[in-house]
Every structure is written in structure tokens, then in C-alpha cells.
Design a protein that fits this description.
Blueprint (H helix, E strand, L loop, with lengths): L2 H15 L42
């Protein structure tokens, strides 16, 4: 890609991202529904089990 093509691409992206002042903001697009549950969610939380005295872990 040449520098001219790259600058043309940047100009197109900039023009697409500019806000239209006359257009009303789409507030309804910011509404969120309920979050979907994970496919592997069995609803059980794992208990916290501490390491025995003197043990340690690292990742």
C-alpha cells in the first residue's frame, strides 16, 4: 500500500466516523437487555480452599 492509498484510507475512515450535527443521537441503541448466561454456567460457585500451611503457587 502506498502512502497516497494509506492517506486516502485514513480520510475515508475519518469521514465515516465524524458525527453529523443535525442527526439526533440514537439513545435507544444504548439500552441493554439482560446479560446472557454462559453455556457452561451450572450456577454453582466454587468454594475458596486455602493452600495448606507452607504451600505456595505461581502461574
Amino acid at each position: 500500500m502506498t502512502e497516497i492509498e494509506f492517506n486516502r484510507l485514513l480520510d475515508n475512515v475519518r469521514a465515516t466516523m465524524e458525527l453529523d450535527i443535525e442527526e439526533q443521537p440514537a439513545l435507544h441503541s444504548m439500552e441493554f437487555g439482560a446479560l446472557p448466561t454462559a453455556a457452561n454456567d451450572n450456577g454453582i460457585e466454587w468454594p475458596f480452599i486455602p493452600f495448606p500451611e507452607g504451600w505456595s503457587a505461581s502461574c
